[in-house]
Amino acid sequence: MSEYDQVKISKLVLKGDKKKGKKRKHKSKKQEKPTEKIDKDSIEHANWWKVAKIEDITGPVAIEFGKHTYVKALDNGLFTIGAPHADYEGPYPEEILTAVVINERKIAFKSGYGKYLRVEKDGNVTGRSDAIGAMEQWEPVFQEGKMALQSATDCFLSVDDEDDSIVAKNKSAGPQNMVAIRCQTVKQDTTSKEVPVEENGSLEQVEINYVKKFQKFQDKKLRLNTEDKSALKSAKDGGYFHETLLDRRSKMKADRYCK
């Protein structure tokens, strides 16, 4: 049988039949992959990209005035404008803040010293707050590709011309109030918002979570405020939820940040 296996079997060709040539398969043109858009601005800032909406403002950020100059935290609780950086150089550690989302309109910023940025009555911006209240909340205002940061006093963030300190004294936003918030985190789908662990559950449970987190009693017994909790709902809708929680804890003298 081995001899039969070696016989090449071919198709029977009758007289008069023309041999059909091999059809050449035309190579389909490869679909050209869309070229990825290169963010030159981000590359020039060491991959710190410019945010375009409030949902992008999360995690480590830097507030840039002009080009390559960032808001810088000082160890005395004040802020100044840092020295200009060269191209392809990112912000220094003291120029990096942490953004905290308050609600759909407002955010807070924490310095590297663990304190929140606050606008004072005189318009000076300080970083000495341990908790987020109304004066620690900032609203990014976007218009025609530009952005300004509005404080709780309705004044916009800027740099003082005399001493380069950071202030919020202008009621209307001009060129001196235009900023860029730069972020280094990977862009993610913002349809699902990350909720802090303490804010899971009902308003009552949220208050209990924060009391457990900040209570100063060694016996670990909860001291809860028994006042009407309806104020918590209006505070959450109004954007001063954390301040109200702190006030309620302070009345019970149950918070380590209470004076």
Question: What would your notes on this structure say?
Answer:
This protein is of the alpha+beta class. It has two domains: 40-183, Trefoil (Acidic Fibroblast Growth Factor, subunit A), CATH 2.80.10; 199-251, no CATH class. Helices cover 16% and strands 23% of the residues. The chain has helices at 2-5, 40-44, 203-214, 230-238, 241-251; strands at residues 49-50, 59-65, 69-73, 79-81, 97-101, 107-110, 116-119, 125-129, 139-143, 146-150, 156-159, 166-170, 179-183. The strands form four sheets. Strands 1, 2, 3, 4, 5, 6 and 13 form a seven-stranded antiparallel β-sheet that branches. Strands 7-8 form a two-stranded antiparallel sheet. Strand 5 and strand 6 form a beta hairpin. Helix 4 runs antiparallel to helix 5. The radius of gyration is 31 Å and the shape is globular. The model has no long low-confidence stretch (mean pLDDT 82).
In short:
The protein is built from 5 helices and 13 strands. The chain is α+β, with helices and mostly antiparallel strands and 259 residues long. The strands form 4 sheets. Strands 1, 2, 3, 4, 5, 6 and 13 form a 7-stranded antiparallel beta sheet that branches. It has a two-stranded antiparallel ribbon with strand order 7-8. The chain has a two-stranded antiparallel ribbon with strand order 9-10.
